[in-house]
Specification:
The protein has 99 residues and is mainly β. Helices cover 5% and strands 30% of the residues. The protein has a single domain, classed as Trefoil (Acidic Fibroblast Growth Factor, subunit A).
């Protein structure tokens, strides 16, 4: 993971259009299984996500190989939990920018 980031990963914050809050990790933790939440943008490390080329779609990961943003259990249900999990390149860890 770290090698991939050194080869061109883009560090960014993601905000929700409606709430204007940042995508964050609950409690600022980075342990496997930590849920993703939205909260005020504070510039903390848990609010920085890395996207890989082509930047339109792909994994959203944490620095240092801490994990990727993962729809738990590859659920397709509304309100499915989104957590930090080991990066595995499966489709439930692929994200696309829209709008």
């Amino acid at each position: 993971m770290v090698d991939r980031l050194r080869r061109g990963g883009l560090a960014r914050r993601f905000t929700n259009f409606e709430s204007q809050k940042c995508l964050s990790l609950k409690g600022g933790r980075t342990a496997k299984g930590t849920p993703a939440v939205q909260r005020d943008c504070e510039g903390t490390p848990d609010q920085i996500w890395y996207t890989m080329p082509p930047y339109r779609e792909g994994e959203m990961s944490r620095s240092g190989g801490a994990g990727c943003l993962d729809v738990q259990g590859a659920s397709k249900a509304d309100n499915a939990p989104v957590i930090l999990w080991k990066c595995n390149s499966k489709s439930n860890q692929k994200w696309a920018g829209v709008g």
